Amino acid sequence: MLAKFVASFIGVVAIGGLVSTAVNAEVQKHTQICNGKLCPSFTLVLTPPLDWDVDKAASEENRVQMLIPRGLNFHDARAVIYIRVSAKEKDQQLSDFIRVSQERWRQSVADSKISKLPPVERGNGKAAFEPFRYENPSRPQQPFELVAFGTDTDKDGNDFILTVVMSGKDQKAIEQAQDSYLELLRRH
Fold first, then answer.
1. R_g of the chain computed on alpha carbons
2. What pTM was computed for the model?
3. Tens digit of pLDDT for each residue in 74-96?
4. Domains defined for the chain, CATH in brackets
5. Residues of 21-47 as b/e, b for ≥16 C-beta within 10 angstroms?
């Protein structure tokens, strides 16, 4: 089952790299009040995959950009995609960010299995996304996830790290939404 999934993932990535169109991604900075002080937050200027929409309420509640299949809500969707944009520390390498992120995840989800997947080339000429497959048996709300890490900039040239996650209620939900997830990665 995993071999079939990885083979399908590689095939879609290869084909997608040939037909994708360049889209300039950009990070926008927002300021909001949290705990009585100004707090920065960041979002990616994005175009959702075909037949997906941004769920504004779930995005605000979870402080990420939450995408769901059109016609569903956050609680009914079998798979969701969310994007977290983080300010990049000076001289921080993406590989270090990934390592620390995965160490923290393994500390909180001891039975998690993380597998590296092939890089996903981006149509905008920026460095490829580095995707991973997470299996989290002890997390019934997120037992299967694809997590891709990449970098982007804002209009002033400041660097950011993108964490793009597709979380599914089961393996079939991930497989059914995988093309939309890859489309999002390639376009941004």
1. 16
2. 0.84
3. 999 999 999 999 999 999 999 99
4. 2-187 (3.40.1000.10)
5. eeeebbbeeeeeeeeeeeeeebbbebe
